[in-house]
Design brief:
By secondary structure, the chain is of the alpha/beta class. It has 17 helices and 15 strands. The protein has two domains: 265 residues, Rossmann fold; 160 residues, no CATH class. It has a six-stranded antiparallel sheet, with helices on one face. A six-stranded mixed sheet has the order 8-12-13-3-14-15. Strand 12, helix 14 and strand 13 form a beta-alpha-beta unit. It is elongated and about 155 Å long. The chain starts with a strand and ends with a helix.
Length: 550
């Protein structure tokens, strides 16, 4: 419930601090006195967008703060989900700075407007005469049925199931698009893959072949160089090998004379061993050299194929070509795998659809069962409000469409008088009838709804006399289970309140301000008397006001 409201520098309000009861509160005042300003300030607290026109003094910031007792409304999950401190008396504050910037706080934690609006939906339902149009809205009619049918858990389950079904559908659509794209590329990808596979590529072979090509292309020059080297090494008279042996033999004779000669001897010995190995490898290399024109032709062709493929795929190595080959192989295989995955998801989608359809059918059946109960409750209340012959007829049928709260299409038909045919509510109900119907609906919903506070903003438009008194009785009865406000011009309703607040204008210096104050008993008698007879209050009006209050 709304415990208190603090307003500073908003529209015509300089400063206002007011407390409210948890029962039935009346707000009255002349047209233009500032009742709409109060609702505007409350709208800021509930998340409505603000602008600089809201500031009375453009040089000062505007502050609107509401204190709400939320202990009985199971809102802990909201506070946890939004990382906010939970307090049984929650403080919501909006600030509009002269710069135009707006700030919002819940229990001193900054929040954005969507969070504020979400919390506001749990706290207050503001209903004005213009909102009677909601009754003509199919979604609102469904909400009424669901409240009476107690469909909240089923709708929550349906929303999860529908979300799951649509998620699978989205995955399925994406896979089918992938398959369509792959199908268009399949022939080309297969051609490229076969081209790479036929090349029989291996890692590192390009470098090996390039080296072998260089060797085979220069075999005569290599033979000549190796043969000459062997000739120089092995000449019996002046060959390197023979000379090294003689040097070794000479140094061996003096190796014991000095450590220096000994080291030289060891080094020459090592050199002789190494050169002997080199000589052996030269002989082996020369013996292994053979002309192989066929091998040379094969290497030339293979390297030319590799170079062509590298140019085609815009890469520089065989390893990169093998990576492309692997990718193409995966794409070609993916088409078959996609078919299996598409079939699996299609089956899962059918299962998810059947689950959502089953819950939607349950919701539909519960709504149908709730229709007679809802219609009877509304007509009983309307009978008290001077519409004894009012009748309602809901037409509801299951469609193939998936709506946020099920698959139902609903039409509400209404007849106000005996002998008249049913017609669509929005076409046949007058403004006064719509006001009374809306009050009856709200009265019924008060037994099912979790809203802690409801504000009726001149919902009594178009009615008067005894009917107005009955409307007041209904609002009064609603306040037994919830906090109710009524902004009204009718004394019959004003007299039913547990508390009565008056909105009025006053002049302070050169400026006009709107103010709100709680009326004492005698002040309330005079206010109701003025509502009965105008500014010139007669004794009979005062007596009538006392009678109404009693």
């Amino acid at each position: 419930m709304l415990q208190s409201l603090y307003i500073k520098n908003f529209a015509l309000i300089e400063h206002l601090a007011i407390d409210f009861s948890d029962k039935f509160s009346i707000i009255t005042g002349e047209t233009g006195a500032g009742k709409s300003i109060l609702l505007g300030a409350l709208g800021l607290v509930l998340g409505r967008r603000a602008d600089l026109t809201s500031l009375k003094d453009k040089e000062q910031k505007c502050v609107v703060e509401g204190h709400f007792r939320v202990a009985d409304y199971n809102l802990q999950d909201f506070f946890t989900a939004n990382d906010l401190d939970y307090e049984e008396v929650t403080i919501i504050r909006r600030e509009i700075l002269p710069s135009g910037k707006s700030r919002a706080f819940i229990n001193d934690s900054p929040v954005n407007l969507p969070e504020l609006q979400e919390l506001g939906d749990f706290l207050i339902d503001v209903h004005s005469q213009h909102q009677t149009r909601e009754l003509s809205d199919e979604q609102y009619q469904i909400q009424i049925l669901d409240a009476v049918a107690q469909n909240h858990e089923f709708i929550a389950a349906y929303k999860q199931q529908l979300s799951h079904y649509r998620h699978i559908q989205a995955e399925l659509k994406e896979l089918r698009l992938q398959k369509e794209t792959l199908a268009k590329e399949q022939d080309y990808n297969t051609f490229l893959l076969n081209e790479l596979l036929s090349a029989n590529l291996k890692e590192g072979e390009q470098e090996e072949m390039e080296q072998e090509l260089e060797k085979l292309s220069n075999i005569e020059a290599i033979k000549e160089a190796l043969a000459k080297s062997l000739s120089i090494a092995n000449d019996e008279q002046a060959g390197v090998l023979q000379n090294l042996k003689e040097i070794k033999l000479s140094l061996q004779k003096i190796s014991t004379i000095s450590i220096v000669y000994g080291q030289l001897y060891e080094r020459v010995s090592s050199l002789l061993i190494e050169f002997d190995d080199i000589n052996s490898e030269l002989e082996a290399g020369l013996e292994s050299l053979t002309d192989d024109p066929e091998r040379l032709e094969f290497i030339n062709q293979k390297l030319q194929l590799i170079y062509t493929l590298q140019k085609k795929h815009q890469v520089a190595t065989v390893e990169e070509l093998l990576a492309i080959q692997n990718m193409l192989d995966n794409k070609v295989m993916m088409a078959d795998e996609l078919d299996a995955e598409i079939n699996r998801l299609a089956a899962e989608a059918e299962k998810a659809k059947a689950t959502a359809d089953g819950t939607a059918l349950t919701i539909n059946n519960r709504r149908k069962k709730a229709i007679p109960l809802l219609a009877n409750k509304i007509t009983d209340i309307l009978a008290l409000l001077g519409m004894p012959d009012a009748r309602f007829k809901f037409e509801i049928h299951l469609t193939d469409n998936y709506y946020p709260a099920g698959k139902d299409a609903v039409q509400l038909f209404f007849s106000a008088n005996k002998g008249t045919d049913f017609g669509l509510l929005k076409k046949v109900a007058s403004g006064g009838e719509m006001s009374r119907i809306m009050l009856a609906v709200k009265a019924v919903l008060s037994a099912y709804s979790k809203l802690p506070t409801i504000i009726f903003d001149e919902i009594d438009t178009g009615v008067s006399g005894e009917i107005a008194s009955k409307m007041g009785d209904i609002m009064k009865a609603m306040s037994d289970t919830m906090q109710v406000f009524a902004i009204t011009h009718l004394p019959q309703i004003a007299s039913k309140g547990d508390q009565h607040y008056k909105v009025y204008k006053s002049t302070k210096g050169d400026t006009t301000v709107s103010e709100l104050r709680l009326l004492a008993k005698e002040e309330r008698i005079r206010e109701i008397a003025e509502m009965l007879s105008g500014r010139d209050i007669s004794d009979s009006a005062l007596n009538h006001a006392r009678t109404l209050l009693n």
